[in-house]
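FAQ

Q: What does a record look like?
A: Structure on top, sequence underneath. For example:
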């Protein structure tokens, strides 16, 4: 019997990390002889962060009909719960604990928990790294990251770029790469890095009875639809996507841009006293620790739509999308826009594969590893509006066969991912 603890956001939370942690737990649960637990946060971040992280819209119980047990216990703001988390995990006596690592600020509690487990148990400590180098580079990110992930027995990366960043973070350590979790140790070679992939989300599926034409009409969409999906964040380059689309719209009148997602920093009632206090404290913290150019407080990409006179060609759904409604936006679209400024493996890319949606991405991060130019999508140069517009024109004039998307992602299942770890 293998007993696995997945530490990270549980299914009550919004966004990709909760979906990822839950999907991985479900994949482990599908194997005979594997018992799976999710040990989750109650609060993932400092209380001063002005954002609601709970998914209050999705109706489906993602772990119904599974044997997964979930424990909501770890409060970032209460170190006593970090101690309770260590005790809980020890009481479960798992073979492995897999920590989801996606943001450096969580280094304090995660590092505390991992170090104490490492010191007092024989549990294998595994870090599933969604990044090493933080997207928004504050002056303390490197310190938090080194403390948070330093005591792992095994690392998982989704791109060689992330593996390289890990090697740069710990230059005195020896690492070696594998594509599976070999049971024989290789201490002489160094610490194992399992090079895997971001699995394709099977929780989001096309609806065979979905009326594409009707929904395109309801959303005021033209023949060719470019989709930007997910949280509105500066690093995802929506401002560049809008500018590139405007160039395409000058040449064609049969195109639409569909923007679907919640503005990351606008989820609380603005006039509430608690919101104003949080924003003031958070603003002070950002001014101390964050580089000015990385501050998203004044990020207003929607303003460009009026400025560029493309209001009649753009449809905006500026809200969090429940899991049950994700499919309709992908099914009405012809390509997904991932014109990121810099990137770690993308959950939105993973969703696109399940809908056989071609990918338009910039040559940053892992995208050159997963997007084969001309096969399952087209690549553009970062910060190059002309190159992005050209990629959008290409997808219309030289469409990607949908079967290519399936071929590119056929090995990227959660089952294969979990099997490689086991």
């Amino acid at each position: 019997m293998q007993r696995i603890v997945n530490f990270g956001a549980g299914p009550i939370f919004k966004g990709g990390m909760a979906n990822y942690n839950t999907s991985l737990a479900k994949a482990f649960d599908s194997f005979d002889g594997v018992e799976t637990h999710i040990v989750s946060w109650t609060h993932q971040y400092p209380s001063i962060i002005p954002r609601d992280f709970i998914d209050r819209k999705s109706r489906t119980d993602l772990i119904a009909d599974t044997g997964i047990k979930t424990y909501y216990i770890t409060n970032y703001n209460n170190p006593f719960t970090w101690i309770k988390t260590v005790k809980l995990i020890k009481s479960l006596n798992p073979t492995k604990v897999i920590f989801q690592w996606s943001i450096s600020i969580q280094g304090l509690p995660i590092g505390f928990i991992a170090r104490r487990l490492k010191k007092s148990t024989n549990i294998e400590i595994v870090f599933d790294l969604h990044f090493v180098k933080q997207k928004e580079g504050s002056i303390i990110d490197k310190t938090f990251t080194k403390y948070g992930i330093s005591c792992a027995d095994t690392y998982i990366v989704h791109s060689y770029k992330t593996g390289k960043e890990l090697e740069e973070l710990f230059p005195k350590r020896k690492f070696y790469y594998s594509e599976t979790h070999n049971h024989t140790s290789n201490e002489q070679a160094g610490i194992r890095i399992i090079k895997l992939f971001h699995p394709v989300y099977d929780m989001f599926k096309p609806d065979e009875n979905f009326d594409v034409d009707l929904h395109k009409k309801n959303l005021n969409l033209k023949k060719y639809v470019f989709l930007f999906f997910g949280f509105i964040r500066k690093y995802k380059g929506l401002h560049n996507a809008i500018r590139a689309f405007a160039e395409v719209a000058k040449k064609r009148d049969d195109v639409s841009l569909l923007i679907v997602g919640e503005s990351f920093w606008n989820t609380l009632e603005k006039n509430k006293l608690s919101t104003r206090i949080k924003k003031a404290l958070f603003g002070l913290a950002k001014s101390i620790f964050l580089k000015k150019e990385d501050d998203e407080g004044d990020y207003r990409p929607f303003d460009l739509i009026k400025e560029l006179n493309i209001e009649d060609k753009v449809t905006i759904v500026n809200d969090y999308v429940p899991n049950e409604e994700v499919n309709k936006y992908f099914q009405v679209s012809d390509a997904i826009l991932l014109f990121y400024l810099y990137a770690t493996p993308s959950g939105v890319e993973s969703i696109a594969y399940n809908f056989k949606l071609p990918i338009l991405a910039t040559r940053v991060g892992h995208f050159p590893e997963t997007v084969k130019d001309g096969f399952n999508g087209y690549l553009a140069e970062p910060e190059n509006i002309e190159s992005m517009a050209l990629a959008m024109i290409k997808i219309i004039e030289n469409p990607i066969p949908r079967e290519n998307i399936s071929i590119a992602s056929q090995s990227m299942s959660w089952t294969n991912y979990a099997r490689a770890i086991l």
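Q: Is there anything notable about this one?
A: The chain has two domains: 2-157+159-195, 212-409.
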